[in-house]
């Protein structure tokens, strides 16, 4: 008996990204991207791992799609590697790159699986980084050129398009904290990058609308429910600032057409506020069909005099955590969904990522009994169900991730997949969580 039944047209899917699974980093005309470069620099990545081979999905995509079919998964979110299409980032087109993605999309459609494409999942062509990357307005236009070609090639086949994956991570981890490619540590640059990424998003949405395509387009943001460590005035203010820093800066720009006043004032005082015009904000505010959200955990923050630049630091609570050290806090997903519904006019929402890394092992029977992951997924889906019951227009859920894959700075040390990947043999082992998720999809809900 299905105890928690989701709406009839609810989208159940899984998600991946190009650099994390494809491999073939220098095959068939692909150009270098910033993660090829960043991972080639010793010390940047756990044990100097890289995505040169990854899950070799570039060559194994058909057998991987067969697994999706076997599990009854009917929606698959993946990203296109910009440098496979434009090796230099613009201009010369690599036909073999286009042919690969056409084969991939047709193979999915042949199995009744609907593709959802992310145009940018962090892998900027290195040639564009060499001219300043996202700090350079030319890159905004090159992104539009890349998107236009993808819409022309695949716009009639692909029903869901996501312009960018997590502009906050691209700008902050890549340009303020320096722990992601391209490894820059400058908040002022980071916020300029965030602004140009949002500009490129708005321009591409406008382009999509002009091409009278039949699908839906949106953007994916990593959002977190922010909690104050105490009820002190300083900690409450710290929570408001961190909510502005991670969530409202992007949500307000995209959905309200203006950056939040409190954060503009703070960034101006810190001399890190980017330059922008009213016209820019109109472009960024182009109407989207859905908001994609990646939710993994909440953030508990406190005032910290020594924490540059926001005077906010995160608490490391002694609560159950995933292998990433992220607290398991399902209620945060409900809180986030309700807040988004209330504060952003009930916009349609897709959960474009939710999942957990655990230290999976293959047991003596050759199985992966990942009950921890099933528990994480169950609890979060229950909160998603509660949010739908309370009126949130939640339209779908893409589990992160389909396959174990290259987990950025953590390399292959963290496994998020519902399918285990033995990187020595490229053998796939379907984990118990995959069979559990297959039942959720078959029942369109949770049974216990
Ligand atoms: O870390 C798991 C996944 C990652 O593999 C995806 O490529 C990426 O889209 C993704 N985003 C988050 C959430 N945001 C985040 C926060 C701090 C550091 C890194 C990512 C988790 N994940």
Topology:
Layout (H helix, E strand, L loop, with lengths): L3 E2 L5 E5 L2 H4 L12 H7 L16 H15 L3 E5 L2 H4 L9 H16 L3 E7 L5 H4 L7 H18 L5 E6 L1 H9 L11 H24 L5 E7 L3 E3 L4 H24 L4 H9 L8 H7 L5 E5 L4 E5 L8 E3 L16 H13 L5 E5 L17 H19 L4 E7 L18 E4 L4 E4 L1 H12 L1 E2 L2
Parallel strand pairs: 2-3, 2-12, 3-4, 4-5, 5-6, 6-8, 7-9, 8-11, 11-12
Antiparallel strand pairs: 1-15, 9-10, 13-14
Helix pairs in contact: 3-5, 7-9, 8-9, 9-12, 13-14
Bound molecules: the ligand OC[C@@H]1[C@@H](O)[C@H](O)[C@@H](O)c2nc(CNc3ccccc3)cn21.
The site of the ligand OC[C@@H]1[C@@H](O)[C@H](O)[C@@H](O)c2nc(CNc3ccccc3)cn21 has 13 residues, from helix 8.
Pfam families: Glyco_hydro_1 (PF00232)
Keywords: Carbohydrate metabolism, Cellulose degradation, Glycosidase, Hydrolase, Polysaccharide degradation
InterPro entries: GH, GH_1_N_CS, Glyco_hydro_1, Glyco_hydro_1_AS, Glyco_hydro_1_beta-glucosidase
Structural features:
448 residues, alpha/beta, TIM Barrel, 8-stranded parallel barrel, 3-stranded mixed β-sheet, globular, binds ligand IDE
Mind explaining what this structure looks like?
- The chain is of the alpha/beta class and 448 residues long.
- It has one domain (2-447): TIM Barrel (Alpha-Beta Barrel).
- 41% of the residues lie in helices and 16% in strands.
- The strands form 4 sheets. An 8-stranded parallel β-barrel has the order 2-3-4-5-6-8-11-12, surrounded by 5 helices. It has a 3-stranded mixed beta sheet with strand order 7-9-10, covered by helices on one side.
- Strand 11 (349-353), helix 14 and strand 12 form a beta-alpha-beta unit.
- The longest helix is centred in the middle third of the chain and has 24 residues, at 187-210.
- The radius of gyration is 21 Å and the shape is globular.
- The termini are close together.
- 51% of the residues are buried.
- The structure holds the ligand OC[C@@H]1[C@@H](O)[C@H](O)[C@@H](O)c2nc(CNc3ccccc3)cn21.
- The ligand OC[C@@H]1[C@@H](O)[C@H](O)[C@@H](O)c2nc(CNc3ccccc3)cn21 binds at residues 17, 20, 165-166, 169, 173, 222, 294, 296, 353, 400, 407, 416.
- The active site is at residues 166, 353.
- Its EC number is 3.2.1.21.
- One of its GO terms (molecular function) is beta-glucosidase activity.
- Keywords: Carbohydrate metabolism, Cellulose degradation, Glycosidase, Hydrolase, Polysaccharide degradation.
- It catalyses: Hydrolysis of terminal, non-reducing beta-D-glucosyl residues with release of beta-D-glucose.
């Amino acid at each position: 008996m299905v105890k928690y039944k989701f709406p009839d047209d609810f989208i159940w899917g899984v998600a991946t990204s190009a650099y994390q699974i494809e491999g073939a980093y220098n095959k068939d005309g692909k150009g270098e991207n910033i993660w090829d470069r960043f991972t080639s620099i010793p010390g940047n990545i756990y044990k100097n791992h890289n995505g040169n081979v990854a899950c070799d999905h570039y060559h194994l995509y058909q057998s991987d799609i067969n697994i999706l079919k076997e599990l009854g998964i009917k929606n698959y979110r993946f990203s296109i590697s910009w440098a496979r299409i434009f090796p230099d980032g613009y201009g010369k087109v690599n036909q073999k790159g286009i042919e690969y993605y056409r084969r991939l999309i047709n193979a999915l459609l042949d199995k009744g699986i609907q593709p959802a494409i992310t145009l940018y999942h962090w892998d900027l062509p290195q040639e564009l980084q060499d001219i300043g990357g996202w700090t350079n307005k030319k890159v905004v236009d090159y992104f539009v050129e890349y998107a236009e070609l993808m819409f022309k090639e695949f716009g009639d086949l692909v029903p869901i398009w996501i312009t960018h994956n997590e502009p906050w991570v691209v700008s902050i981890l890549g340009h303020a904290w320096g722990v992601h490619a391209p490894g820059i540590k400058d908040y002022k640059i980071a916020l300029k990058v965030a602004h140009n990424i949002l500009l490129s998003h708005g321009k591409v949405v406008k382009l999509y609308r002009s091409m009278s395509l039949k699908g839906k387009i949106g953007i994916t943001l990593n959002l977190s429910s922010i909690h104050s460590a105490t009820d002190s005035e300083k900690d409450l203010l710290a929570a408001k600032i961190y909510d502005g820093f991670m969530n409202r800066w992007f949500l307000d720009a995209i959905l309200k057409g203006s950056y939040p006043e409190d954060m503009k004032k703070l960034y101006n005082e810190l001399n890190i506020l980017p330059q922008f015009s009213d016209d820019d904000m109109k472009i960024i505010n182009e109407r989207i069909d859905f908001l994609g959200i990646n939710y993994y955990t909440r953030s508990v923050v406190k005032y910290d005099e020594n924490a540059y630049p926001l005077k906010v630091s995160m608490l490391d609570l002694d609560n159950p955590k995933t292998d990433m050290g992220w607290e398991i806090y399902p209620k945060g997903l409900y809180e986030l969904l309700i807040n988004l519904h209330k504060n952003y006019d009930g916009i349609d929402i897709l959960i474009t990522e939710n999942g957990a890394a655990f230290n999976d092992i293959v047991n003596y029977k050759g199985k992966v009994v990942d009950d921890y992951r099933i528990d994480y997924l169950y609890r979060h889906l229950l909160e998603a169900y509660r949010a739908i019951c309370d009126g949130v227009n939640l339209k779908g859920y893409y589990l992160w991730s389909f396959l174990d894959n290259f987990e950025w700075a953590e390399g292959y040390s963290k496994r998020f997949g519902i399918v285990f990947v033995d990187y020595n043999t490229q053998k796939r082992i379907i984990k118990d969580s995959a069979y559990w998720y297959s039942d959720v999809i078959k029942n369109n809900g949770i049974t216990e």
